Amino acid sequence: MYAQMIKTARSGVKTREEMTEQERAFQDKIDADIKIEPRDWMPDDYRATLIRQIGQHAHSEVVGQLPEGNWITRAPTLERKAILLAKVQDEAGHGLYLYSAAETLGESRDELVRLLHEGRMKYSSIFNYPTLNWADIGAVGWLVDGAAIVNQVALQRTSYGPYARAMVRICKEESFHARQGYHAMMKMALGSPEQRKMAQDALNRLWFPAMMMFGPHDSESTHSEQSMAWKIKVKSNDELRQQFVDQTIPQIEYLGLELPEPGIKWNEDRGHYDFSDPDWSEFMDVLRGNGPCNVDRMNARRKAWDDGEWVRDGLLEHARKKAARAVAAE
Ligand code: BYC
Q: In this predicted structure, what is the pLDDT of residue 75?
């Protein structure tokens, strides 16, 4: 359904005069902060935008397991191993809540996964970067989950009820993830000179990819204007990026690490930190599939899907037999 809808999606936000009566009533609900629920009428583009964003979000959670899963067997202690295992498992659960939220819009999980595997849907650019050593796992928890929380706390107020409610639970778990990442970074940053060097290197390499998670500048963002009018997004890409920078710089200072780039400076007039842009051409290149790990990530996901076919088939057959037995017993 989504594949069909994106072909017909219109661009530009309609004025009240251009809206039909039904669309005006819908916008009035949005403006009054009344949540939209699955059985409510909604414009096709609202549905398509949600399926795109929620689907992309679900795929990010699932693909996001790969860079961390890579380190479960090599975590430095049994405790760190158990914590990382639990975190990676949480990400699978987040994917599940989000695919379920997309299902309430009439789009099946199988279809979304098919579109991902065919390269027709995206997932967060950040997961196309490698995790080279243990410090990277700390930095991912701290910076990547930290960036995700900034975005997802705002999404708890998104206008679509099932998405907003999924975010509440996800945010609770993500905040635990960010803390465990920061704790791992503290151990490294306050450890031996070699550990400290690894922590600094991880921060330096992951800083700009984390900044890219918020998407392009508002002026370059295709969907922001309409998504904000519909309150699918309640804060813009640039607002969220600034919030992330402002909350993260004091955390870097607490670790005693150097700032990852020279453009970071407190701006007294704005009451915010200034910072440099990431390399947006690199961002676009990663989105086109040319990041360091895009090919590996997609191959891993396609293989997992194919390897899991017997489990899906077994469960479906069990459900079919159970239903048939229930009918026979009536
Ligand atoms: N990466 O018009 P824009 C996690 C695309 S998982 C890739 O601003 P929008 C975690 C965008 O899709 C957290 N693509 O878009 C998991 C659009 O392309 P299409 C993931 C990006 O949607 C495991 C085009 O660029 N979080 O934390 O209004 C372990 C123009 O952009 C990116 C979410 O998914 C990107 N970074 O705003 C650890 C949050 N940025 O679709 C951690 C939910 C932009 O037209 N999503 N694009 O082909 C959102 O809040 C919004 O979708 C975004 C982008 C802010 C990301």
A: 96
Task: Measure CA of the first residue to CA of the last residue in the chain; give whole Å.
Answer: 36
The pTM of the full predicted model, rounded to 2 decimals, is: 0.95
Q: How many CB atoms lie within 10 A of CB 309?
A: 9
Are 190 and 257 a contacting pair, CB within 8 Å?
no
What are 261-297's pLDDT values in tens digits? Answer: 999 999 999 999 999 999 999 999 999 999 999 999 9
Ligand 1 pocket, mutate which of 56, 125, 142, 227 (most atoms under 8 A from CB)? 56
Q: For 183-212, give the DSSP string.
A: HHHHHHHTS-HHHHHHHHHHHHHHHHHHHH
Expressed in angstroms and rounded, the spacing between residue 214 Cα and the centre of ligand 1 is: 7
Q: Is 13 left (phi over 0), alpha (psi -120 to 50) or beta?
A: beta
- Average pLDDT value for the chain: 96
Pairing of strands 265-267, 272-274: antiparallel
**Which residue ranges have their beta carbon within 6 Å of ligand 1?**
52-53, 56-57, 60-61, 64, 91, 122, 124-125, 144-145, 148, 151, 212-216, 221-224, 227, 233, 237, 287
**Distance of CA 254 from the midpoint of ligand 1 (Å):** 29
